Amino acid sequence: MERRHSLSSEPTTTKEKKKKSCSELVSVKLIEWEDYEQEVARLWSLSSALREAREKKEALEGKLHSLNQVEAESLDRLSVLEEIRERVDARKKMMEILSDRLEGAGEKAKEEEERLGAEVRSLLVAGTALSVANKKLEESNRSLAGESGFLRLRNLQKMLRLRQQFMISQVSLLYSVKMSRGPSQDQELESLPSTSKSENNAGSKLVNPGSLTILGLHLTVLPFTKMSFFSNKKEVQRSATALGYVAHAVSLVSSYLKVPIRYPVRLGGSHSYIIDPAPSIEPISSSVESSKSTSQSTVKPVEFPLFLDGQDTTRAAYAVFLLNKDLEQLLNYIGVKSLGPRHVLANLKELVRTVQSAEFLES
Questions:
Q1: Which GO terms describe its biological process (predicted)?
Q2: Which of 174, 184, 236, 288 has the fewest CB atoms within 10 Å, counting from its CB?
Q3: Averaged pLDDT score across all residues of the chain
């Protein structure tokens, strides 16, 4: 009996377990009929609340989506604004640089304006001075165009030329260079009278140096280098006297023509000297004297004798050469070429003849 009871009790326990599991899966609530309407109303309100909640959720989702879009657009706009701000900053910096440059350019423009103003003022002053100078020039031209202007200057110049002719004619009378026939082995050029300055060389002839004398004294220039202390003293004295006459005549003519000669003359009759202001360095035997001469910074003028009495023949010949250079300078001043380096009396005669000609008045 116990066995049957145990067998019959097993199915009942399994059934209870199944019921418990079903009741756990599906919670069934038993409602009384009286509470049914209330429960339906409650469920209806819950469903409507759930529907409203869903609608609100969908509305909130739409708003959230639109807010997301607005936020994205705002971020894009912020990035654009940031770029614009950077560009604006860069332009501000550029404007500052440009303003600084503009200020510098303005200062330079002011300085340039001041400089141009000063130049304009100086130009105005120069213009006024130029106008005054033009007026003076016009007045000078008018004064020269009149009878008392250019003609007066020409007359004064002619009077000056006449005066110079007269004074040099007195020199020619005082130291007359004449022709005299005398035997000699050397020849010297003497210019014959001609009508124009360009015919001087064509109108020249060869004569003996003995044929030209100054106050009756012959001048033998070429044998100077051949003379010695044992030569004829009278001949040496006559040549020195003749050179003294020529030196005095050259000094007078240069003073009358207002021409400072390049090599001045220290007059002393037959013992005259000619001065070389820039001589070449002469050889000195003593080493002490050479050291003293090289130590001097300035070169002193040197006098060369126009005579041979107790002098070196080379220095005397060089003095005659310098005297002829003075004659050449005076000839070039009046537009005549020199006749040669050894034709002292011929050059002096040509100088006096040209000054006394009519061409000298028209020059």
A1: SNARE complex assembly
A2: 288
A3: 77
